[in-house]
Amino acid sequence: MRIGIVCPYSFDEPGGVQAHILDLAEWLNNHGHTAKVIGPCSAETPVPDFVTRGGGSIGVPYNGSVARLSVGPKVNARLAGFITQGHFDVLHIHEPNSPSYSMAALRMCHGPIVATFHTSGAESTALRLARPALKPLLEKIRGRIAVSEMARRFQVNQLGGDPVLIPNGVDTGLFAAAATRAAATGSDAVADSGGTGVEVVFLGRLNEPRKGFGLLVEALRYVHCPVHVTVIGSGTQIPHERISYVGRVSDSAKADYLARADIYVAPNTGGESFGIVLIEAMAAGAAVIASDLEAFRAVTDQDSDHPAGLVFPTGDPQALAAAIDRLAGDKDLRAQLVANGRKRCADYDWDTVAREVLRVYETVADGTVVSV
Asked: What residues does the Glycosyltransferase subfamily 4-like N-terminal domain cover (predicted)?
């Protein structure tokens, strides 16, 4: 099967949707299919050969973040070339209501179309007002996917339809292999933490308040156990005796940092519909502490008898500090959470998730080629 995949967000900045799309395309290409991707991307950003660079982007405030989108006539021209040259059996559009490549693709294309909805949020006045104009476009979608119950509910309430729930996928093998390497080489948390024995990792854009980096820094004032924090991500660095900054890193380096961690902390304050990095941390063998967000509760399976992490009241630095102290001081609890996490992350492995997506493709493909 030939699949065209449309990404609304720029590959120049790392993000969950972009990672999802690249991983899905790679899995499809490695399993007998041909997948091509188009989305905003500058000439300087390294991307796989299956990605068509869609040019520059502009930053637009969205959902507590800044989404980098492409707009203008060049988008339509690039899309038209991508579609006509691709001869796709299915076009898979991510975030079709995003005013970038995705909405442009939905507007101009005809044929077997699948859409994945990643975003969840509160009632949107702008989206409600735009719904009459969006409705005929959304009716072109033959197969709908939501990555979480929150995203599914948001789509049903805001846009109509009833999508199938298929979660984000994670290359769990990459992170499990990093854990194996760390154990074999003795490159463990004790070395990373300067001898304290408890290594904490945070990953996220430091200047984006909803990622919770400021909350983590504040929480360290109340942490009693000797811990060291490694911070992965771009942004303004706050000097702190307990923190080391490594900036943006490759996927393999990220896996190695997570594999050497005792604890992974996700102090996000909102705007999350999933939590890919929580799954990555579980696969790498880190015990997870996360904000008590609905999406994070679901990923860490909080309502089961074997939760795969601790949660703390969102936005409460002292509660976060207490959770860090609890895990830092209880090696047995960490081991139990790690074991639960490794079982939990199997549900999100790409080998499972991509096959579910492929079944959606098969239900909408009708032998015609996507056209403009």
From this structure: 14-172
Q: Give the lowest-confidence range in 121-125, 132-136, 142-146, 318-322.
A: 121-125
| Non-local CB neighbours of 9 within 8 Å, separated by 6+ positions | 15, 17, 18, 39, 40, 57, 67, 68, 69, 95, 98, 100
| Cα–Cα distance for residue pair 132/262, rounded to 1 Å | 50
Instruction: Please tell me whether residue 62 adopts helix, strand or coil conformation.
Output: strand
Residue 124 — φ and ψ, nearest 5°? Answer: -110, 120
Q: Return mean pLDDT, the chain.
A: 90
By DSSP bridging, strand 65-69 and strand 143-146 are unpaired
Residues in the chain: 372
Residue extent(s) of CATH 3.40.50.2000 domains in the chain: 2-169+350-364, 172-348
Say if CB 183 and CB 154 are below 8 A apart. Answer: no
Give the span between the Cα atoms of 264 and 308, in whole angstroms: 12
* Alpha-carbon gap, residue 151 to 37, rounded angstroms: 23
Instruction: Give the DSSP per-residue string, 183-207.
Output: HHHT--HHHHTTTSS-EEEEES-TT
Angle value at C-alpha 372, between 33 and 165, nearest 5 degrees:
50
* pLDDT score, position 80: 96
For the whole prediction, is pTM greater than 0.70?
yes
Joined tokens for residue 256: 């190695």
d(CA 189, CA 326): 17
pLDDT above 50 for 193: no
Give the pLDDT score at 124: 54
Q: Answer yes or no: is pLDDT of 126 > 70.
A: no
DSSP alpha helices (H): ranges in 143-267?
149-159, 172-185, 189-192, 213-219, 251-259
Instruction: Indicate the angle between helix axes 101-108 and 125-138, nearest 10 degrees.
Output: 40
Query: Please, which pLDDT band fits residue 196 given cuts at 50, 70 and 90?
Result: low
**What is the CATH topology of the domain spanning 172-348?**
Rossmann fold (3.40.50)
Dihedral angle sign, alpha carbons of residues 165, 168, 173, 175: negative
Span 2-169+350-364 CATH architecture: 3-Layer(aba) Sandwich (3.40)
10 Å CB burial of residue 200 (0-12, 13-18, 19+) is buried
Largest pairwise CA distance in the chain: 63
